[in-house]
Amino acid sequence: MVTRVVVIGAGFGGLAACEALADKPVEVTLVDRHNYNTFQPLLYQVATAGLNPGDIAYPVRNYVKRHDNLRFREDLVSNVDLGEHLVHFADGDPVGYEYLVIAAGAGTNFFGVTGAEAHARAIYTMEDAVAVRNERAAALERAAAHGGGARELTVVIVGGGPTGVEMAGTVAELTAMELETTYPELDKSLARTILLEQRDRLLGGFHERLGSYAEKVLEKSGVIVRCGVGVSEVASDHVVLSSGEIVPCGLVVWAAGVGGTSLTSALDLESARGRLAVRPDLRVVGHDDIFAVGDAAAISDGDGPLPQLAQPAIQGGGHAGKQILRLVGGQATEAFKYHDKGIMATVSRRAAVAQLPGGIRLTGTPAWFAWLGLHIFYLLGFRNRFAVLFNWAWRYLWWRHGPRVIVGA
User: Which is catalytic among the residues 152, 166, 173, 197?
Assistant: First the structure.
């Protein structure tokens, strides 16, 4: 009998697991509620109308059709019967498995802040990014039509990690350009982009010098950076800071952290810090036939949990696939070893920060070009690479020429 493997999630980790299992003596079913892979590091550019949704989405079937032992099912996983080895779906018959890889990603962590889930907008999925883009465009149009003031023209971004920094820099630059070229009737002095970080500095996972550089560049771009400040409440038209200060705003973007998904929370599996607890070989604690990778897994490299970024997911997914093949061949599994390839974040249209192995730290234009090259390299599909490269070139060379057309969801 052919060994059946079910991979839940077509993100970085899920596709990496499938790549390791492709054309091997196993039968793989890849499951996702969408029929496309989302390149999450560029979602903030969709949210700010720099890229179209299709530029960072790749049809999963275009990948699956190249391998005879891979199948794809677009469906929502409702539950997993751990005893019967069955994956149940919101629609249709269940699928059985001998091995399961959970690469379902993560959801937004609002940390129990009052009103945050209802009124703040995350940018973790394509739907999130398009919603942020639409809401921001609607706020500008309302301000132009009805003579809006500071509230409509204020965007508050919560979280000073890479996503928050990238979002803040892009929003500030885009707003300044739009108010000059597209909305001349609005008072530019009322527009504010506010970045809030509860810790005492930005980019906590980076070297302190890179965080300081990012803060200086953001402030030069017009971003109001406030570190050491948390959020205690989010309402439809304002946020309340931990100090009690009320900040009126038209949009709140939540980039403060990620948490578990409804699926991982529903499964009767051991968790750690909101993620599935795994052994050194990435098998879920207490289950020899289930692996967890990427954002869904609490993987440690000895110095603490790995960041919820693309590289840990890619490497973890590939490792899980290889361990399944070892188990099928009667071999013992091997421990996962993470190879740090560095972290990067763009700060503005001509500046970025990069922290690379060997203590190499880049800032400014060199880091920005390194960031561009890396993201183009990891994008799936030639069309997507060409579209993103063309849009970036256009945005870089003709940034101030013409309005940004924003299409609704």
Answer: 166
